[in-house]
Specification:
5-stranded parallel beta sheet, binds NADP nicotinamide-adenine-dinucleotide phosphate, 14 helices, single chain, 7-stranded mixed beta sheet
Length: about 525
């Protein structure tokens, strides 16, 4: 069987000892093994810091942008192979696989543009020189310079391509060497991408390392100039935040975690309106796409009481129409969950939700699967729940069920609606569907403190909006509270995580010479 290797200290390493097995979640066929036993992670970090870091920091943003362009070209040239791996190891349909793979390359291109725009410089100015004394001779300004350590990236299972590449694009453009660790269960695609990037020689030695399996003692060696960016569950995030590296050595930790994203129908929307249809499409898509295993997927749907029956009926019909099965079959629209433990976790969540909400549709053991050996694969059908008395169903705001599960519930007015959304504890994204501008403004303003991103669906953008589930490189990805409190992407804003902001004061004219706009 294929043994995944780690690429650290400028070489490929076979891990020793206990291995984890990667499966095809539709057939349960073993695809590969991974292990990191015996790897010297302290040396790996040191190689990145002392070899990759100086090489990247010597380059301008424009030069680093050309490296990203090189990565883009080799990845794009192998797109078909990546899509096949994503279908096999991720349980993704072809469209879901493209979403991950193309999301990765599109993000790279966005950061190529940002790097070219930043151009021939190594430093970013933050604002203008401010006068500090009575005369303009004495002033101060803020600059960003690249930190001198290594960036460790730990990613979740659901986006092995996009997750790895979006973090790497930002870290590398900022000038930091990257050590990337995908979730082990779906590491096949990220591993193959790394092989291709390494073979291409586009990156300087030490600029990119890859861990196939557990991080071992790597995080114990993190030092103050290093950074750790994590995407995954809130539980793992809590472990990482408790590391000495963070609590005692102040290593920056960025967390993207769970999220109970909301979709809201405005009181102005009538069944069958263009905006109604848009909302129905986006909710359906978020339940179906990647079998609901998307951090941005809509979990809670708030609808005016008078529209509940119609919306639930329409959504039920759409969800029951989804063809589930082995995504190797082109007719399949929704694949399995990614692993047995994921399936068990989602089934347990459905069980708990069922105690407080009415199940409208969905089954744990779908019997009409396409192209599946009987009894094999981690399948379940889309689950739709309805809640009539929201006060009696606190669970909808408490538990993220990371699968194809959505709950529809009523709201009375904007104020209680905002309060209910806030009970989710902080979200990555929420969406408001309304053509009533006063309602939309009130909601977008009221929801903003509880969300990293908001989308406004309206007849003006129906047909051109990518929906709330698509993370965009130019906009911030992250959210407060439960969502982790982190922030990634957001165009050039994303670079600041890998750079130190320093205030510098002195003779204003000289500061402007040293650090021109
Ligand atoms: P997870 O179990 O927390 O794992 C995430 C990553 O952390 C994996 O690479 C995992 O490696 C690693 N990991 C686990 N324990 C660790 C430890 N003690 N030290 C260092 N690394 C450790 O999460 P998941 O099941 O992959 O992902 C599902 C969760 O991620 C969901 O809750 C979802 O909401 C969240 N998510 C959030 C976003 C976002 O952008 N906010 C995006 C996607 C997913 P192994 O695989 O080797 O265990």
């Amino acid at each position: 069987m294929l043994k995944l290797k780690s690429y650290v200290s400028g070489k490929w390493h076979d891990g020793e000892g206990k291995t984890a097995t990667l499966l095809n979640p539709a057939t349960e066929e073993p695809l590969a093994e991974a292990s990191t036993g015996g790897i010297d992670f302290s040396a790996a970090l040191q190689h990145a810091r002392t070899v990759g870091g100086p090489a990247l920091r010597a380059m301008t943003f424009a030069e680093r942008a050309e490296i990203l362009q090189g990565i883009y070209e080799v990845l794009f040239a192998n797109r078909e192979e990546f899509i096949e791996l994503s279908i096999a190891n991720g349980g993704n349909t072809r469209n879901d696989a493209k979403f991950d793979v193309d999301g990765a390359t599109a993000t790279l291109l966005a950061y190529v543009d940002i790097g070219r725009e930043l151009g021939d410089r190594h430093i970013i100015n933050d604002g203008e020189t401010e006068q500090l004394g009575r005369t303009p001779r004495y002033g101060g300004k803020h600059i960003y310079t690249t930190m001198c350590g290594a960036a460790v990236h730990i990613n979740a299972f659901n986006f092995p391509a996009w997750g790895m590449i979006e973090k790497a694009a930002v870290g590398l453009l900022a000038g930091m060497p990257v050590i990337s660790k995908p979730a082990t269960s779906t590491a096949l695609l990220a591993h193959r991408m790394t092989e291709i990037i390494v073979q291409s020689g586009v990156l300087p030695d030490g600029a990119f390392s890859f861990i196939a399996g557990s991080v071992g003692d790597l995080l114990d060696h993190l030092a103050p100039q290093d950074a750790l960016a994590f995407t995954g569950s809130g539980d793992t995030a809590a472990v990482l935040r408790a590391l000495d590296a963070h609590t005692r050595r102040s290593v920056r930790v960025n967390v993207e975690a769970d999220s109970l994203n909301a979709a809201i129908m405005g009181p102005d929307i009538e069944s069958g309106d263009e905006t109604w249809q848009m909302m129905l499409n986006e909710v359906t898509n978020d339940v179906r796409q990647k079998a609901g295993q998307k951090c941005t997927a809509i979990r809670r749907v708030f609808v005016p009481p008078g529209q509940i029956r119609n919306f639930v009926e329409a959504l039920k019909e759409r969800l029951e129409d989804i063809n589930i099965g082995n995504p190797a079959d082109a007719n399949v629209r929704m694949g399995p969950l990614v692993s047995r433990s994921q399936l068990e976790d989602v089934a347990a969540g459905i069980d708990v939700l069922g105690n407080q909400a009415t199940q409208v549709s969905g089954t744990l053991q779908p019997d009409n699967l396409t192209a599946v050996d009987s009894g094999k694969g981690f399948f379940l059908s889309p689950h739709l729940f309805q809640v009539d008395d929201v006060a009696a169903a606190p669970i909808v705001h408490e538990r993220e069920i990371f699968g194809p599960v959505v709950t529809v519930m009523p709201y009375e007015d904007a104020e209680t609606l905002i309060n209910m959304c806030a009970q989710g504890g902080g979200s990555l994204v929420s969406s408001v569907y309304s053509d009533d501008r006063d309602f939309a403004r009130e909601l977008l303003t009221g929801l903003a403190p509880y969300n990293g991103r908001l989308t406004h669906g309206s007849a003006k953008v129906a047909g051109i909006s990518p929906g709330p589930g698509t993370v965009l490189p130019g906009l911030v990805h992250g959210g407060p509270g439960r969502a982790g409190g982190g922030e990634e992407l957001g165009g050039a804003r994303g670079l600041s995580f890998y750079m130190q902001r320093t205030a510098i004061q002195g003779y204003s004219a000289l500061l402007d010479k040293f650090f021109p706009r």
